[in-house]
Amino acid sequence: MTEQRVALVTGGARGIGADVCRRLHAQGRRVAIADLLTADAEALADELGGRGYACDVTDSERVRAVVAAIESDLGPVDILVNCAGFDRFVRFVDTDEDFWDTIIDINYKGTLRTCHAVLPGMMERGWGRIVNFASDAARVGSSLESVYAGAKAGVIGFTKTIARESVKRGVTCNVVCPGPTDTTLIREMGEQGELPAKIVAGLDRAMPIGRMAQPHEIAYGATVFTHDDATLITGQTLSVSGGLTMA
Questions:
Q1: Angle (nearest 5°) at CA 240 between 238 and 246
Q2: Are 50 and 30 in contact (CB under 8 A)?
Q3: Which of 151, 178, 200, 245 has a CA 20 to 30 Å removed from the CA of 206?
């Protein structure tokens, strides 16, 4: 039955990911929460009647092991939402290859790993929903986020391509691009120096709506794609930014 479909959310322990988990639960999904923040993941899983899993999306073996554990505990993964991400506000000229590797490994290759682990099963069963998180930084650029913007642009191109490859097998693949959102991560990014602090302090003023988004507002956009009836919506990129970007 569709209400028993299993949803895997990476980075689901807090922020946007946690509200994605809550919305999926409200859709009747069995939610598997994969995160490095294991205590938070387990607490949310207890709230929702789901399961929490320790997962590092930069570790291919761990990703495969987590997917196998979910399938053993809950059933096949039919919905994947990739919320796991990381960034810091840094001028490109001040970055180095270690920073590049970290940002790309989490934000781009992390998405590749989870999709690679679940997509074959979805195609074999003839049903699936994949929602990958990118960013409006990938669509229009964003000061001090050059490597992150590039990695997230890769997520958009990748998702459009797997959407083409899997749609005839009943799998849809879409992208959500949040605008500035009031999360713990962005507050932490604002604590990295004077310039990052100024950028975060000005985000409310920059938004046409007059404030940053709240995580639950972004989660609503993401879970539009996970409904059973969203059969023809694939390869799309949805900006949820309160009017900050409209192109």
A1: 75
A2: yes
A3: 151
| C-alpha distances out from residue 134 to 13, 108, 122, 187, Å | 18, 9, 22, 19
Q: Is 2-177+215-236 a domain of CATH 3.30.390.30?
A: no
Is 53 among the residues known to form the active site?
no
d(CA 168, CA 81): 20
Overall pTM > 0.90: yes
* Catalytic residue selected from 53, 108, 148, 220: 148
Question: pLDDT for 31-70, tens place per residue?
Answer: 999 999 999 999 999 999 999 999 999 999 999 999 999 9
| Cα three-residue angle 136-164-65, rounded to 5 degrees | 80
How far CA 196 is from CA of 15, 90, 95, 143, 207, in Å, comes to 20, 8, 15, 10, 17
DSSP conformational letter for 190: T
